[in-house]
Amino acid sequence: MDDPLGPLLLRIAAQDRAVFRAIYRQSAPKLLGILIRMLGQRADAEDALQEVFTKVWLRAAKFDPDRGPAQGWLVTLAHNHAIDLIRARPPRNEGDDALPEIADTGLRADQRLEAKSEARRISDCFGTLEADRSAAVRGAYLEGLS
Description:
Number of strands: 0
Distance between the termini: 28 Å
Mean pLDDT: 83
CATH class of the largest domain: Mainly Alpha
CATH architecture of the largest domain: Orthogonal Bundle
Radius of gyration: 17 Å
Number of helices: 6
Helix content: 55-70%
Strand content: under 5%
């Protein structure tokens, strides 16, 4: 299986800043989309993205290409970080006057096109899975369920 990010993560483990910037440019839009969906607010997702990439810098040596592709490792880091943030949130006490929170996606046209393309590819992949497995993966990675 071709994993273009795998060797780059291994170079980040050796503290290669240029490669880190390259991985950030390649992966940040996709990870931000996951974080926005899970956290519900763009500002929270942007903060979380910075924390995720701090973890990438610090934990790149722990990436094992034999266990899966680098993109999966990055998505798992983002997903797990979002779950930690959600669990750490204080319980909400909403009154009648509370306004519903609306996520500001604010994506540029090229980002929307890329997201639609990725969504189609992911949907096609889900279609190859058995229904119960597809539902489990959707719940875990797209809806923040455990």
